[in-house]
């Protein structure tokens, strides 16, 4: 399918963080291709490994989150295809990497765990039926996560203020005190 997934253009807090990003939902993308029993999956891969990704032939072969460090890809966010139809009330964004409970290595269900490095990552949506893949979108452009700042680079002492700032703050504070005195005098 010609659709290319992308980070949501909406102004969102935490649109891209050090471990997650918010994708725009693929609304109306699979209409005409999906049956009621089909599911839409999100494939997540390191950008340099996306070309090597192969669609799994069945749900049992879906690459898991726990295999990301070695396989360089996984699939997550399994959703009924009908949830993305034009007529369905769907969420505007999908948070990739938002499930911190995925760190439990014993979980076998498709997991949406925190992304382990800044990436970059590429994603695509895959429509799967009971007999395997039916349709897929194109890969996204590379998505680079934010990098955490090293604590050693944070300066704990605020920068010195210039004398002009000190004079301005003093004048404003004095005017505030005069105004407060005048208001109290008028009320008294």
From TrEMBL:
The chain crosses the membrane at residues 164-187. One of its GO terms (cellular component) is membrane. The keyword Transit peptide does not apply. It comes from the Eukaryota. The keyword Magnesium does not apply. InterPro entries: Uroplakin-3. Keywords: Membrane, Transmembrane, Transmembrane helix. This is UPK3B protein. It comes from Dicaeum eximium.
